[in-house]
Design brief:
Elements: E1 3-7, E2 15-17, H1 22-31, E3 38-41, H2 48-59, E4 63-67, E5 72-76, H3 88-92, H4 100-107, E6 109-113, H5 126-134, E7 137-142, E8 145-150, E9 157-159, H6 165-174, E10 181-185, H7 191-202, E11 206-208, E12 214-218, H8 235-247, E13 251-255, H9 263-272, E14 275-279, E15 282-286, E16 296-297, H10 309-316, E17 322-326, H11 335-342, E18 346-350, E19 353-357, E20 366-368, H12 372-384, E21 388-392, H13 395-398, H14 404-410, E22 414-418
Helix pairs in contact: 1-2, 1-7, 4-6, 5-6, 6-7, 8-10, 8-12, 10-12, 11-12
The structure holds uridine-diphosphate-2(N-acetylglucosaminyl) butyric acid (EPU).
Protein backbone atom coordinates (compact mmCIF):
# COMPACT_ATOMS: atom_id res chain seq x y z
CA UNK A 1 0.00 0.00 0.00
CA UNK A 2 1.40 3.41 -0.96
CA UNK A 3 2.03 5.85 1.85
CA UNK A 4 3.50 9.30 2.27
CA UNK A 5 5.96 9.62 5.13
CA UNK A 6 6.69 13.06 6.59
CA UNK A 7 9.27 13.83 9.26
CA UNK A 8 8.37 17.08 10.92
CA UNK A 9 10.46 20.01 12.05
CA UNK A 10 12.11 21.33 8.88
CA UNK A 11 11.71 24.93 7.77
CA UNK A 12 10.81 25.42 4.12
CA UNK A 13 12.66 27.66 1.69
CA UNK A 14 12.93 28.28 -2.03
CA UNK A 15 10.37 28.20 -4.81
CA UNK A 16 7.51 25.94 -5.82
CA UNK A 17 5.72 25.83 -9.19
CA UNK A 18 1.94 25.60 -9.18
CA UNK A 19 0.22 23.33 -11.72
CA UNK A 20 -2.83 24.01 -13.82
CA UNK A 21 -6.06 23.72 -11.80
CA UNK A 22 -7.64 20.28 -11.49
CA UNK A 23 -11.10 21.77 -11.21
CA UNK A 24 -10.55 23.84 -14.37
CA UNK A 25 -9.00 21.12 -16.48
CA UNK A 26 -11.56 18.38 -15.74
CA UNK A 27 -14.62 20.22 -17.15
CA UNK A 28 -12.49 21.52 -20.04
CA UNK A 29 -11.49 17.96 -21.01
CA UNK A 30 -15.17 16.97 -20.83
CA UNK A 31 -16.13 19.98 -22.99
CA UNK A 32 -14.02 18.61 -25.88
CA UNK A 33 -16.92 16.16 -26.40
CA UNK A 34 -18.93 19.11 -27.76
CA UNK A 35 -16.53 19.66 -30.64
CA UNK A 36 -15.45 16.77 -32.91
CA UNK A 37 -12.10 18.15 -34.04
CA UNK A 38 -8.49 18.01 -32.79
CA UNK A 39 -8.14 20.07 -29.63
CA UNK A 40 -4.88 20.75 -27.82
CA UNK A 41 -4.74 21.53 -24.12
CA UNK A 42 -1.43 22.68 -22.64
CA UNK A 43 0.22 22.09 -19.24
CA UNK A 44 -2.33 19.46 -18.24
CA UNK A 45 -1.23 18.08 -14.87
CA UNK A 46 -0.61 14.36 -14.38
CA UNK A 47 -3.43 13.72 -11.90
CA UNK A 48 -5.39 10.58 -11.17
CA UNK A 49 -8.67 12.33 -12.09
CA UNK A 50 -7.19 13.43 -15.43
CA UNK A 51 -6.10 9.82 -16.13
CA UNK A 52 -9.63 8.56 -15.41
CA UNK A 53 -11.12 11.04 -17.92
CA UNK A 54 -8.48 10.21 -20.55
CA UNK A 55 -9.22 6.49 -20.14
CA UNK A 56 -12.95 7.17 -20.40
CA UNK A 57 -12.54 9.12 -23.64
CA UNK A 58 -10.29 6.38 -25.07
CA UNK A 59 -12.85 3.73 -24.11
CA UNK A 60 -15.45 5.80 -25.99
CA UNK A 61 -13.37 5.59 -29.18
CA UNK A 62 -11.79 9.07 -28.98
CA UNK A 63 -8.19 9.70 -30.00
CA UNK A 64 -6.24 10.95 -27.02
CA UNK A 65 -2.50 11.63 -26.85
CA UNK A 66 -1.00 12.80 -23.58
CA UNK A 67 2.57 13.75 -22.92
CA UNK A 68 2.92 13.88 -19.12
CA UNK A 69 6.29 15.65 -19.47
CA UNK A 70 5.10 18.69 -21.46
CA UNK A 71 1.48 18.37 -20.31
CA UNK A 72 0.27 18.53 -23.93
CA UNK A 73 -3.05 16.74 -24.26
CA UNK A 74 -4.44 16.19 -27.78
CA UNK A 75 -8.05 15.07 -27.97
CA UNK A 76 -10.16 14.27 -30.99
CA UNK A 77 -13.71 13.14 -30.20
CA UNK A 78 -14.80 12.69 -33.86
CA UNK A 79 -15.41 8.94 -33.43
CA UNK A 80 -17.03 9.25 -30.01
CA UNK A 81 -19.54 6.52 -29.20
CA UNK A 82 -22.31 6.53 -26.62
CA UNK A 83 -21.66 5.41 -23.06
CA UNK A 84 -22.94 1.90 -22.47
CA UNK A 85 -24.36 0.45 -19.30
CA UNK A 86 -22.52 0.27 -16.07
CA UNK A 87 -19.36 2.18 -16.93
CA UNK A 88 -16.74 1.61 -14.26
CA UNK A 89 -14.82 4.85 -15.01
CA UNK A 90 -17.96 6.99 -14.76
CA UNK A 91 -18.67 5.49 -11.35
CA UNK A 92 -15.08 6.07 -10.25
CA UNK A 93 -15.15 9.84 -10.40
CA UNK A 94 -17.88 12.26 -9.38
CA UNK A 95 -16.80 14.95 -11.84
CA UNK A 96 -17.64 12.52 -14.65
CA UNK A 97 -21.33 13.45 -14.25
CA UNK A 98 -20.26 16.49 -16.27
CA UNK A 99 -20.18 14.29 -19.40
CA UNK A 100 -23.98 14.25 -19.28
CA UNK A 101 -24.44 17.71 -20.83
CA UNK A 102 -21.93 17.33 -23.70
CA UNK A 103 -23.15 13.76 -24.41
CA UNK A 104 -26.72 15.06 -24.65
CA UNK A 105 -25.53 17.74 -27.04
CA UNK A 106 -23.81 15.08 -29.24
CA UNK A 107 -26.36 12.22 -29.14
CA UNK A 108 -29.58 13.76 -27.86
CA UNK A 109 -29.60 11.23 -25.03
CA UNK A 110 -27.36 9.86 -22.32
CA UNK A 111 -27.62 7.20 -19.65
CA UNK A 112 -25.01 6.97 -16.92
CA UNK A 113 -24.76 5.56 -13.40
CA UNK A 114 -26.14 7.86 -10.76
CA UNK A 115 -23.09 9.27 -8.94
CA UNK A 116 -23.03 8.17 -5.33
CA UNK A 117 -22.21 10.24 -2.29
CA UNK A 118 -18.61 10.45 -1.18
CA UNK A 119 -16.58 11.07 1.95
CA UNK A 120 -17.51 14.76 2.03
CA UNK A 121 -21.26 14.58 1.50
CA UNK A 122 -24.25 13.09 -0.30
CA UNK A 123 -23.69 15.25 -3.41
CA UNK A 124 -27.01 15.06 -5.25
CA UNK A 125 -27.50 16.13 -8.91
CA UNK A 126 -30.98 17.67 -8.64
CA UNK A 127 -29.76 21.11 -9.74
CA UNK A 128 -28.14 19.68 -12.88
CA UNK A 129 -31.41 17.93 -13.76
CA UNK A 130 -33.48 21.04 -12.98
CA UNK A 131 -31.33 22.96 -15.46
CA UNK A 132 -31.71 20.24 -18.10
CA UNK A 133 -35.49 20.30 -17.70
CA UNK A 134 -35.62 24.04 -18.31
CA UNK A 135 -33.61 23.47 -21.50
CA UNK A 136 -36.16 20.92 -22.76
CA UNK A 137 -34.40 17.74 -21.61
CA UNK A 138 -36.35 15.03 -19.79
CA UNK A 139 -34.55 12.94 -17.21
CA UNK A 140 -35.37 10.00 -15.02
CA UNK A 141 -33.55 8.31 -12.16
CA UNK A 142 -34.07 4.59 -11.71
CA UNK A 143 -32.22 1.32 -11.08
CA UNK A 144 -29.05 3.27 -10.21
CA UNK A 145 -28.97 5.23 -13.47
CA UNK A 146 -29.77 8.73 -14.66
CA UNK A 147 -31.25 8.70 -18.13
CA UNK A 148 -31.83 11.94 -20.01
CA UNK A 149 -33.25 12.67 -23.48
CA UNK A 150 -33.57 15.88 -25.42
CA UNK A 151 -37.25 16.56 -26.14
CA UNK A 152 -37.13 20.10 -27.42
CA UNK A 153 -33.81 21.85 -26.79
CA UNK A 154 -34.25 25.59 -26.27
CA UNK A 155 -32.69 28.44 -24.31
CA UNK A 156 -34.40 29.39 -21.06
CA UNK A 157 -33.95 31.24 -17.78
CA UNK A 158 -32.67 28.94 -15.03
CA UNK A 159 -32.48 29.86 -11.37
CA UNK A 160 -30.16 27.70 -9.29
CA UNK A 161 -31.29 27.33 -5.66
CA UNK A 162 -27.59 27.07 -4.76
CA UNK A 163 -24.64 28.26 -6.89
CA UNK A 164 -23.44 24.72 -7.64
CA UNK A 165 -20.16 24.59 -9.57
CA UNK A 166 -20.98 21.32 -11.34
CA UNK A 167 -24.57 22.28 -12.22
CA UNK A 168 -23.43 25.66 -13.61
CA UNK A 169 -20.80 23.89 -15.75
CA UNK A 170 -23.16 21.18 -16.99
CA UNK A 171 -25.89 23.67 -17.91
CA UNK A 172 -23.39 26.00 -19.56
CA UNK A 173 -22.03 23.19 -21.75
CA UNK A 174 -25.48 21.84 -22.64
CA UNK A 175 -26.84 25.22 -23.63
CA UNK A 176 -23.98 26.05 -26.04
CA UNK A 177 -26.18 24.68 -28.88
CA UNK A 178 -29.61 25.47 -27.37
CA UNK A 179 -31.50 27.72 -29.81
CA UNK A 180 -32.23 31.14 -28.28
CA UNK A 181 -30.81 32.57 -25.08
CA UNK A 182 -30.10 30.76 -21.82
CA UNK A 183 -29.64 32.74 -18.63
CA UNK A 184 -28.30 31.03 -15.51
CA UNK A 185 -29.23 33.02 -12.41
CA UNK A 186 -27.42 32.47 -9.10
CA UNK A 187 -24.68 30.73 -11.10
CA UNK A 188 -21.48 29.64 -9.39
CA UNK A 189 -18.81 32.37 -9.64
CA UNK A 190 -15.69 30.22 -9.20
CA UNK A 191 -12.71 31.15 -11.44
CA UNK A 192 -12.96 27.64 -12.96
CA UNK A 193 -16.40 28.58 -14.37
CA UNK A 194 -14.87 31.65 -15.99
CA UNK A 195 -12.12 29.45 -17.43
CA UNK A 196 -14.55 26.90 -18.87
CA UNK A 197 -16.43 29.75 -20.58
CA UNK A 198 -13.11 31.11 -21.90
CA UNK A 199 -12.42 27.67 -23.43
CA UNK A 200 -15.94 27.28 -24.86
CA UNK A 201 -15.78 30.80 -26.31
CA UNK A 202 -12.40 29.99 -27.88
CA UNK A 203 -14.31 27.33 -29.86
CA UNK A 204 -16.99 29.81 -30.95
CA UNK A 205 -19.56 29.54 -28.13
CA UNK A 206 -21.22 32.80 -27.09
CA UNK A 207 -21.11 33.00 -23.30
CA UNK A 208 -21.14 36.24 -21.33
CA UNK A 209 -20.94 36.93 -17.61
CA UNK A 210 -19.20 33.69 -16.54
CA UNK A 211 -17.49 34.30 -13.21
CA UNK A 212 -20.47 36.35 -12.04
CA UNK A 213 -23.88 35.35 -10.72
CA UNK A 214 -25.70 35.73 -14.04
CA UNK A 215 -24.39 33.90 -17.10
CA UNK A 216 -25.91 34.45 -20.55
CA UNK A 217 -25.44 31.89 -23.31
CA UNK A 218 -26.53 32.62 -26.88
CA UNK A 219 -27.00 29.28 -28.63
CA UNK A 220 -24.78 28.69 -31.68
CA UNK A 221 -25.20 26.06 -34.38
CA UNK A 222 -21.58 24.88 -34.57
CA UNK A 223 -18.15 25.20 -33.01
CA UNK A 224 -14.76 25.68 -34.66
CA UNK A 225 -11.29 24.29 -33.94
CA UNK A 226 -9.75 26.31 -31.09
CA UNK A 227 -6.16 27.47 -30.64
CA UNK A 228 -4.18 25.41 -28.10
CA UNK A 229 -5.57 26.29 -24.69
CA UNK A 230 -3.87 26.56 -21.28
CA UNK A 231 -6.21 26.48 -18.25
CA UNK A 232 -5.70 28.65 -15.15
CA UNK A 233 -3.34 27.92 -12.24
CA UNK A 234 -4.61 25.88 -9.32
CA UNK A 235 -5.65 28.34 -6.62
CA UNK A 236 -6.16 25.53 -4.08
CA UNK A 237 -2.69 24.07 -4.64
CA UNK A 238 -1.26 27.59 -4.21
CA UNK A 239 -3.33 28.06 -1.04
CA UNK A 240 -2.04 24.74 0.30
CA UNK A 241 1.57 25.94 -0.09
CA UNK A 242 0.68 29.28 1.52
CA UNK A 243 -0.54 27.38 4.57
CA UNK A 244 2.63 25.27 4.43
CA UNK A 245 4.70 28.47 4.81
CA UNK A 246 2.53 29.51 7.76
CA UNK A 247 2.54 26.19 9.57
CA UNK A 248 6.34 25.79 9.29
CA UNK A 249 7.12 29.46 10.08
CA UNK A 250 8.87 29.77 6.73
CA UNK A 251 9.23 32.18 3.84
CA UNK A 252 8.74 30.69 0.35
CA UNK A 253 8.02 31.80 -3.21
CA UNK A 254 5.04 30.33 -5.05
CA UNK A 255 5.20 30.57 -8.86
CA UNK A 256 1.92 30.61 -10.75
CA UNK A 257 -0.56 32.58 -8.69
CA UNK A 258 -3.50 34.70 -9.75
CA UNK A 259 -3.90 36.99 -6.75
CA UNK A 260 -7.56 37.72 -7.42
CA UNK A 261 -8.51 34.02 -7.45
CA UNK A 262 -6.84 33.58 -4.07
CA UNK A 263 -8.24 36.68 -2.38
CA UNK A 264 -10.37 34.90 0.28
CA UNK A 265 -7.43 32.69 1.29
CA UNK A 266 -4.95 35.60 1.23
CA UNK A 267 -7.22 37.70 3.46
CA UNK A 268 -7.84 34.92 5.99
CA UNK A 269 -4.16 34.05 6.19
CA UNK A 270 -3.30 37.73 6.70
CA UNK A 271 -5.75 37.84 9.63
CA UNK A 272 -3.94 34.79 10.98
CA UNK A 273 -0.48 36.40 10.62
CA UNK A 274 0.73 34.96 7.29
CA UNK A 275 1.57 37.72 4.83
CA UNK A 276 2.19 37.68 1.12
CA UNK A 277 3.48 39.97 -1.59
CA UNK A 278 2.91 39.60 -5.32
CA UNK A 279 5.54 40.06 -8.00
CA UNK A 280 3.76 39.36 -11.29
CA UNK A 281 2.64 35.73 -11.07
CA UNK A 282 5.03 35.04 -8.19
CA UNK A 283 3.85 35.21 -4.61
CA UNK A 284 6.29 35.59 -1.74
CA UNK A 285 4.70 34.20 1.39
CA UNK A 286 6.06 35.17 4.78
CA UNK A 287 4.82 32.78 7.42
CA UNK A 288 7.54 33.59 9.98
CA UNK A 289 5.44 35.85 12.22
CA UNK A 290 3.29 35.04 15.23
CA UNK A 291 -0.06 33.41 14.35
CA UNK A 292 -3.47 34.38 15.67
CA UNK A 293 -6.65 32.27 15.81
CA UNK A 294 -9.28 33.13 13.18
CA UNK A 295 -12.88 32.23 12.47
CA UNK A 296 -13.69 30.76 9.05
CA UNK A 297 -16.95 30.09 7.27
CA UNK A 298 -16.74 28.26 3.96
CA UNK A 299 -18.94 29.70 1.21
CA UNK A 300 -19.27 29.56 -2.56
CA UNK A 301 -16.74 31.84 -4.33
CA UNK A 302 -15.82 34.61 -3.57
CA UNK A 303 -16.33 33.28 -0.05
CA UNK A 304 -13.70 31.20 1.71
CA UNK A 305 -13.26 27.94 -0.29
CA UNK A 306 -14.35 24.65 1.23
CA UNK A 307 -11.34 23.15 -0.57
CA UNK A 308 -9.03 25.12 1.80
CA UNK A 309 -10.89 24.31 5.01
CA UNK A 310 -8.94 21.20 6.03
CA UNK A 311 -5.55 22.84 5.36
CA UNK A 312 -6.49 25.91 7.44
CA UNK A 313 -7.66 23.62 10.22
CA UNK A 314 -4.21 22.00 10.33
CA UNK A 315 -2.64 25.45 10.75
CA UNK A 316 -5.16 26.58 13.38
CA UNK A 317 -4.72 23.36 15.35
CA UNK A 318 -1.26 24.62 16.41
CA UNK A 319 -2.22 28.31 16.63
CA UNK A 320 -2.64 29.48 20.23
CA UNK A 321 -6.26 30.35 21.07
CA UNK A 322 -9.67 29.20 19.84
CA UNK A 323 -10.73 29.29 16.19
CA UNK A 324 -14.21 28.49 14.92
CA UNK A 325 -14.60 26.83 11.50
CA UNK A 326 -18.05 26.55 9.93
CA UNK A 327 -18.48 24.34 6.86
CA UNK A 328 -21.53 25.41 4.88
CA UNK A 329 -20.85 23.90 1.43
CA UNK A 330 -20.60 20.14 2.15
CA UNK A 331 -22.44 18.47 5.00
CA UNK A 332 -19.71 16.02 5.96
CA UNK A 333 -16.37 17.66 5.37
CA UNK A 334 -14.85 17.19 8.81
CA UNK A 335 -13.47 13.67 8.41
CA UNK A 336 -9.95 15.05 8.93
CA UNK A 337 -10.83 16.19 12.46
CA UNK A 338 -10.45 12.65 13.78
CA UNK A 339 -7.12 12.24 12.00
CA UNK A 340 -5.78 15.58 13.32
CA UNK A 341 -7.01 14.45 16.75
CA UNK A 342 -4.80 11.35 16.48
CA UNK A 343 -1.88 13.76 16.05
CA UNK A 344 -2.81 15.59 19.25
CA UNK A 345 -5.04 18.39 17.91
CA UNK A 346 -7.85 19.58 20.18
CA UNK A 347 -10.93 19.98 17.97
CA UNK A 348 -14.59 19.55 18.84
CA UNK A 349 -17.37 19.29 16.28
CA UNK A 350 -20.94 20.42 16.75
CA UNK A 351 -22.87 19.82 13.52
CA UNK A 352 -21.30 21.98 10.84
CA UNK A 353 -19.09 23.87 13.30
CA UNK A 354 -15.64 22.86 14.51
CA UNK A 355 -14.00 24.55 17.46
CA UNK A 356 -10.25 24.35 17.23
CA UNK A 357 -8.30 24.99 20.41
CA UNK A 358 -4.67 25.46 19.40
CA UNK A 359 -2.18 23.07 21.04
CA UNK A 360 1.56 23.60 21.49
CA UNK A 361 2.60 20.77 19.24
CA UNK A 362 1.38 17.83 17.20
CA UNK A 363 2.92 14.38 17.26
CA UNK A 364 3.46 12.09 14.28
CA UNK A 365 1.54 8.83 13.97
CA UNK A 366 -0.34 6.74 11.37
CA UNK A 367 -3.18 8.69 9.78
CA UNK A 368 -5.12 8.50 6.55
CA UNK A 369 -6.22 10.86 3.81
CA UNK A 370 -9.99 10.75 4.21
CA UNK A 371 -10.44 12.90 1.09
CA UNK A 372 -8.23 14.93 -1.23
CA UNK A 373 -7.92 18.13 0.83
CA UNK A 374 -7.93 16.19 4.11
CA UNK A 375 -4.86 14.39 2.74
CA UNK A 376 -3.16 17.72 2.07
CA UNK A 377 -3.98 18.75 5.66
CA UNK A 378 -2.28 15.59 6.95
CA UNK A 379 0.91 16.46 5.03
CA UNK A 380 0.80 20.02 6.44
CA UNK A 381 0.31 18.72 9.98
CA UNK A 382 3.13 16.22 9.41
CA UNK A 383 5.51 19.04 8.45
CA UNK A 384 5.37 20.43 12.00
CA UNK A 385 4.59 17.33 14.04
CA UNK A 386 7.25 15.86 16.31
CA UNK A 387 8.50 12.61 14.81
CA UNK A 388 7.15 10.74 11.82
CA UNK A 389 3.69 10.91 10.24
CA UNK A 390 2.63 8.05 7.98
CA UNK A 391 -0.26 8.94 5.71
CA UNK A 392 -2.30 6.12 4.16
CA UNK A 393 -4.99 6.09 1.45
CA UNK A 394 -3.00 8.64 -0.51
CA UNK A 395 -4.82 7.85 -3.77
CA UNK A 396 -7.13 10.66 -2.63
CA UNK A 397 -4.16 13.08 -2.68
CA UNK A 398 -3.03 11.87 -6.13
CA UNK A 399 -6.47 12.74 -7.53
CA UNK A 400 -5.71 16.44 -7.20
CA UNK A 401 -2.03 17.19 -6.47
CA UNK A 402 0.81 16.47 -8.94
CA UNK A 403 4.02 15.16 -7.37
CA UNK A 404 3.16 16.74 -4.06
CA UNK A 405 5.99 15.05 -2.18
CA UNK A 406 8.54 16.16 -4.83
CA UNK A 407 7.33 19.75 -4.57
CA UNK A 408 7.62 19.73 -0.77
CA UNK A 409 11.01 17.99 -0.89
CA UNK A 410 12.30 20.69 -3.24
CA UNK A 411 11.29 23.22 -0.55
CA UNK A 412 13.39 21.31 2.00
CA UNK A 413 10.76 19.12 3.67
CA UNK A 414 11.62 15.58 4.72
CA UNK A 415 8.92 13.72 2.87
CA UNK A 416 8.84 10.63 0.67
CA UNK A 417 6.54 7.95 -0.68
CA UNK A 418 6.76 4.28 0.19
CA UNK A 419 5.24 1.50 -1.88
CA UNK A 420 5.08 -1.38 0.60
N1 LIG B 1 -25.50 20.25 -4.68
C1 LIG B 1 -26.84 19.92 -4.66
N2 LIG B 1 -27.44 19.59 -5.84
C2 LIG B 1 -26.77 19.57 -7.01
C3 LIG B 1 -25.41 19.91 -7.04
C4 LIG B 1 -24.79 20.25 -5.84
O1 LIG B 1 -27.47 19.93 -3.61
O2 LIG B 1 -27.39 19.24 -8.05
C5 LIG B 1 -24.83 20.60 -3.41
C6 LIG B 1 -23.73 19.58 -3.09
O3 LIG B 1 -24.27 18.43 -2.46
C7 LIG B 1 -22.81 20.38 -2.18
C8 LIG B 1 -22.94 21.79 -2.74
O4 LIG B 1 -24.13 21.81 -3.55
O5 LIG B 1 -23.27 20.34 -0.86
C9 LIG B 1 -21.76 22.22 -3.60
O6 LIG B 1 -21.62 21.37 -4.71
P1 LIG B 1 -21.06 21.86 -6.11
O7 LIG B 1 -21.93 21.31 -7.18
O8 LIG B 1 -20.83 23.33 -6.07
O9 LIG B 1 -19.66 21.12 -6.16
P2 LIG B 1 -19.10 20.14 -7.26
O10 LIG B 1 -19.28 20.70 -8.61
O11 LIG B 1 -19.57 18.76 -6.98
C10 LIG B 1 -16.76 21.31 -7.28
C11 LIG B 1 -15.34 20.87 -7.10
C12 LIG B 1 -15.12 20.52 -5.63
C13 LIG B 1 -15.41 21.76 -4.80
C14 LIG B 1 -16.83 22.26 -5.06
C15 LIG B 1 -17.17 23.54 -4.33
C16 LIG B 1 -14.82 19.92 -9.24
C17 LIG B 1 -14.49 18.71 -10.05
N3 LIG B 1 -15.08 19.72 -7.95
O12 LIG B 1 -17.56 20.19 -6.89
O13 LIG B 1 -13.74 20.18 -5.52
O14 LIG B 1 -15.26 21.46 -3.43
O15 LIG B 1 -17.01 22.46 -6.47
O16 LIG B 1 -16.27 24.54 -4.66
O17 LIG B 1 -14.81 21.02 -9.76
C18 LIG B 1 -11.87 19.28 -4.45
O18 LIG B 1 -11.20 19.75 -5.38
O19 LIG B 1 -11.36 18.81 -3.40
C19 LIG B 1 -13.32 19.29 -4.56
C20 LIG B 1 -14.11 18.54 -3.80
Amino acid sequence: MEKIIVRGGRKLQGEVDISVAKNAVLPIIVATILNPTEIILRKVPMLEDVTVLINLLRELNCEVKFSPITGDLKINTSNLKEIEGNNELIRKMRASFLVMGPMLARFGRCKISMPGGCNIGSRPVDLHLKGFKALGIDSEIGYGYVEAKIKNLHGNRIYLDFPSVGATENIMMTSVFAPGVTIIENAAEEPEIWDLARFLNSMGAKIEGAGYGRITIHGVSELKQPEPFTPIFDRIEAGTFMVAAGITNSKITINGVNEEHLMPTIEKLKECGVYCKMDGEKMIVDGTGEKRPVDIKTMPYPGFPTDMQAQMMALLSITKGASVITETVFENRFMHVGELGRMGANIKIDGRVAIVEGVNNLTGCQVKATDLRAGAAMILAGLVANGQTEIGEIYHIDRGYTNIEDKFRKLGAEIYRTYR
